[in-house]
Design a protein that fits this description.
Blueprint: H1 3-6, E1 9-10, E2 16-20, E3 24-29, E4 32-37, E5 43-47, E6 50-54, H2 60-81, E7 84-91, E8 96-100, E9 103-107, E10 114-116, E11 124-127, E12 133-138, H3 141-154, E13 164-167
Antiparallel strand pairs: 1-6, 2-3, 3-4, 5-6, 7-12, 7-13, 8-9, 9-10, 11-12
Length: 187
């Protein structure tokens, strides 16, 4: 039995849940509204202020969908109540970020500045005063993570000097540089 799938999702009083036939779930909260279609095999119901997900059989794909559906529903509830955020750190001489209106502008060692508009209205950027940290916040966990990965991919941290964009708290293993010019073949 799926341990994650068995746990009910608690719904706060400020959140409304609407379950339409065809497994389309709409969740509204103080921060916004999220809607998603789930697999028809899963049974989603609201009981005693909680969302309960059940599966029809013990087949492998049903067990996988059981935990996935419950996790996605929980992320939707957390998103509309508290929201999600991802923090990126920028390391390197001359590397910085700035915000122009809603857009994020990155100077990361390329010949041109890289501009990122927010993918939707509920996603916002916040740049620190020194331009070294960028906070991406919103209600959809998938959008936040995808956008952070896309920004990080523009200049991933390199292992020799550590320059690049990394997640907050990410450890970048550094490598030793060249051993020296005269060490090999100097005879």
């Amino acid at each position: 039995m799926s341990r994650i799938g068995k746990m009910p999702v608690s719904v706060p009083a400020s959140v409304t849940v609407d379950i339409v036939p065809g497994n389309i779930v709409t969740i509204k909260g103080p921060k916004g509204e999220l809607s998603q279609r789930f697999n028809r095999d899963m049974t989603i119901s609201r009981e005693n202020g909680e969302i309960v997900v059940t599966r029809p059989t013990d087949q492998r794909h049903h067990r996988a969908l059981h935990g996935l559906t419950r996790s996605l529903l929980n992320n939707m509830v957390v998103g509309v109540t508290d929201g999600f955020q991802r923090v990126l750190e920028i390391h390197g001489v001359g590397y910085r970020a700035q915000q122009e209106g809603q857009n994020l502008i990155l100077q990361i060692g390329k010949s041109h500045p890289v501009e990122y508009p927010p993918p939707s209205q509920d996603v916002t950027f916040e740049v620190s005063r020194d331009g070294r940290t960028v906070t991406i916040s919103g209600i959809d966990k998938q959008k936040i993570g995808q956008l952070a990965a896309k920004i990080r991919k523009e200049r991933p941290p390199e292992p020799y000097k550590g320059k690049g964009i990394r997640y907050q708290g990410e450890y970048v293993r550094s490598k030793a540089g060249k051993a020296g010019a005269g060490a090999i073949g100097a005879a």
